[in-house]
Amino acid sequence: MLPGVLTAYGAIWFSNLGFSEAQISILNSVPIFIVLILNLLIGRLADRANDWRTTIIIGSLFAAISLTGILYSQDYWVILVCLTISNVAMGTTVPVVDAAAVRLADRMNYGFGVQRAWGTIGYLILLMVTGEIIARFGDASYIWLLLLAAFLRMQAAFFLPKFRAPKLEVAPIQGLVALASVMRPWFILPLLGYGIINGSHMILNAFHSLFLARQGYEPLTISLIISLGAVAETIMFVLFSKISSRMSSRGFLAIAGVATVVRWVAFGFEPTLFWLIPLQLMHAITFALGFVAIVRFISRHVIEENAAEAQGLMAMIQQIMTIVAMLGFGFFVAQMGIQAFWVAAGYAALGTVCVLVSLILRASSTDGPIKR
Fold it and tell me: Phi/psi of residue 177, each to 5°?
């Protein structure tokens, strides 16, 4: 939910406070850099705990409480520190949440994508609420929206179930091994490729609302445009279980990479609303399909005892690529404006190549459905 509020109006709010594109890039990249350092450690600690739920609750508490500092000052450094602490607390628990969710979905025999769709629905609701409230009450209401989203997330964490499977409750999944045993190029390259493809989306998250505002769109219209991507993402999450057996995880990831390149090239031409609609709907393929593919890829190769650490490794690689993207995009946006999306397209193409090389190194037959 909190990312929905940040995506809908964050860049515009920062710009209205007088922050430059470079400063906005730093606000987005510093938390990612710190999360990068902590991800594997948090994942390892979460794996050693009795249940992943405790780690998620602690992260949610810190994420909410740290944001209250923005109530007292909108100085750049205050916002940087508060957002960094909040995003680090939230970001380090994301791989733990993903590991917990995918293992629970496997154990309960329902699609992880359906479960993940509820997160997107929360994102979508806050996206729409943000646009409407900003349109009615202006910038002053934005801080309260940030706090509302953070504290709702914190409250929800306390109602989470236990995620770990009791001993001997289910048969083990065939073919899973310890994380150290799969640290080979065929396994690392898809993680790297996904990190690059996903990282190229950061120009969309950090600057898209600002680009749309400069084109003359109102806050509510901007939220509606961005929400199209979230709607498409939700549909993909729900439907993925019906198509997941048709192709390997890396095959789906390669499709997501190619679609991402096409999408960013088109965005660079400053499309009108007529073209923005299908381009936003492509988010179902460029983001959602890539995400469920990489999560499934990891879950089909790594044992539960290393699940959070493995997702943390994926997140760490993703964040390295995101930092590279954000720092670079800040410069290219200042120099090229919306045509900086073409740089993002080249970046996504590099990620797609990584996935294709992995497929050459090892056949995709091991990425498929669960076997017990």
Answer: -135, 170
Per-residue model confidence (pLDDT) at position 89: 86
C-alpha torsion angle, residues 22, 329, 324, 153 (rounded to 10): 80
Q: What is the pTM of this model?
A: 0.70
Give the pair of three-digit tokens for residue 286.
């460029």
Cα 102 to Cα 299: distance, rounded to the nearest angstrom: 7
Q: Residue 54 is encoded by which pair of tokens?
A: 């405790």
Residues of the chain with pLDDT under 50: 168-177, 369-372
C-alpha to C-alpha distances, 103 to 244, 250, 295, 366, nearest whole angstrom: 17, 20, 11, 18
* The one-letter amino acid at 154: M
Domain 2-160+170-367: which CATH class?
Answer: mainly alpha
Q: Which amino acid is at 143?
A: I
Torsion sign across C-alpha atoms 118, 261, 326, 128: negative
Q: How far is CA 178 from the centre of its chain?
A: 25
Q: Nearest CA to 287 among 203, 213, 187?
A: 203
* C-alpha gyration radius of the chain: 20
**Tokens at 82, concatenated:** 């508060």
3-class secondary-structure state, position 232: helix
Where along the chain do its domains lie? 2-160+170-367
CB 312 within 8 A of CB 40: yes
Amino acid sitting at position 97: V
* 273 neighbors 228 (Cβ within 8 angstroms): no
Alpha helices in the chain (DSSP H): 2-16, 21-48, 53-66, 76-108, 112-137, 142-157, 185-199, 202-214, 219-243, 249-267, 273-281, 283, 290-299, 307-336, 341-361
What is d(CA 21, CA 23) in angstroms, rounded to the nearest whole number?
A: 5
pLDDT at 166: 56
Q: Which two tokens stand for residue 141?
A: 């209401």
- How crowded is the C-beta side of 303, counted as CA atoms within 13 Å? 10
Give the closest residue to 258 by CA, choosing from 290, 218, 233: 290
At residue 331, the pLDDT reads 79
pLDDT in tens, 309-345: 777 788 788 878 877 887 777 778 878 888 889 999 9
